[in-house]
Every structure is written in C-alpha cells, then in structure tokens.
Design brief:
Structural class: alpha/beta
Bound molecules: zinc ion
Number of domains: 1
Helix content: 25-40%
Order of helices and strands: EHEHEEHEEEHHEHEEHEH
Mean pLDDT: 92
CATH architecture: Alpha-Beta Barrel
Strand content: 25-35%
Shape: globular
Low-confidence stretches: none
Length: about 240
Amino acid sequence: MIAVDLHLHTCHSYDCATSLNDVVTGAQRAGLDCLAVTDHNTIAGALKLRDAGEFRVIVGEEIGTADGEIIGLFISELVPPGLSALETIDRVKDQGGLVCIPHPFGRRYFSPSTELGANEDGRIRLSKAVRRTSRLLTEEVLERVDMLEAINSRTVFKSTWTAIGKLANLYGLPVSAGSDAHTVREIGRSRVLMPDFTDARSFLEALRKGQPSGIASSLFIHFGSIYARISRKPC
Ligand SMILES: [Zn+2]
C-alpha cells in the first residue's frame, strides 16, 4: 500500500508560497509516497516537480470553471479556466485524465442524515439540498466525474465528509482525500492509503480499494493563504 495526498498547492498557485523543495521535504516528513500537485489553473509546478524526479508526482490542476472548481488528474496539458463544467470535463478526459470534484459541499454543513437524492429506476435525482449547494452538483456533471473528494482538511465540518461519501456511494464513485495544503505543515493531513498503480486506469481501481483518512486543519490555516497572497514571490 502507498500513501497519497491527492490535493495540494505550490508557489505556482496565486495563494500559496510553498517552494517545490519545501513540498518535497513536507511530503517526506509526512511519510507520503506520492502527491497529486493541483495548483490553481496551472500545471507548471506539477510538471517541474515530476520532472525533477525527487518525489513521485501525479500532475493535476484545480481548474476554476464557470460553474465551480474541478480537479483534473493525470493530465499533460493545461485546461484553461473559465469554461463550463461539462466542457472542462471533456478537456480533461480527452487527454486521458481523471475528473474529481474537490470539496463538493464547500463550507456548508451537511449532517450524515441530510437527504442527498434517490435512485429512481436507474436514474439518480439529486435532492434540493445538494443542487442548491453548487452549480457543479447536477445529475449531468456527477454522471461524468470519476471521483468525489470526500475528505479535505480545509473543510469546516467533519460530518460533511460522511455526507460526501454517501453521495459518492449513490453514484458508485470512489472517494479521494487531500490536504488542500497551502502551507508545508498541512501536507499529508489527508491521504489515501491505496494499492500501487501505474496509470490513470489502475489508479481508479486502486482508489476503490483505498482507505481515505484525514485530520481537519484549524480555521486559522486560512490566514496562511491570505498571508501567502500578500507576501508571495514568484517561484
Ligand atoms: Zn485546492
């Protein structure tokens, strides 16, 4: 089994000051075997880190679509921000990548008993509570994604993690876990312990057998991102 943090940022993101060297140090300190580098609207840092060969990296991008944020994993070309969710999903899949919805419920509180939707003759009808949370949470989008990020260390309510797991279950999707680290010490706070993989397809199979886990970061961690925005130097 290998330990993988599936969502984190480097100084190539506008709101993060962590150098690529520090990402490697942080990942080693956290006992990780692999990282998905998912900077906002760029893959430059992920490519650099992967090509440096010091640490195992999945090239990803947290893409700001017109409908909300989507993560593409195992991509090799930048997906431009600002496209619709469905167009963005196509662009990720056209290059053999996988699509994840990070923090699908945002900062909203969902109890494990919140009604999420129902399977009506093989078609899932989402509940109002889910649909009004984000423009990404439509039947059309959820039918086309590969995974949902159930555990994100920066989300506020742990009960939300359980609710996302249940939504993923409704669609038969595996769940991912990521620290969403914007500072070195957050790296590895969420991770999936999973069988090893060689490509996108075997990753998805391995993820289904994975054990996601996470520690929630304190709310004060968001001040780190604000500070990074102000103090950040280009890297
Ligand atoms: Zn993020």
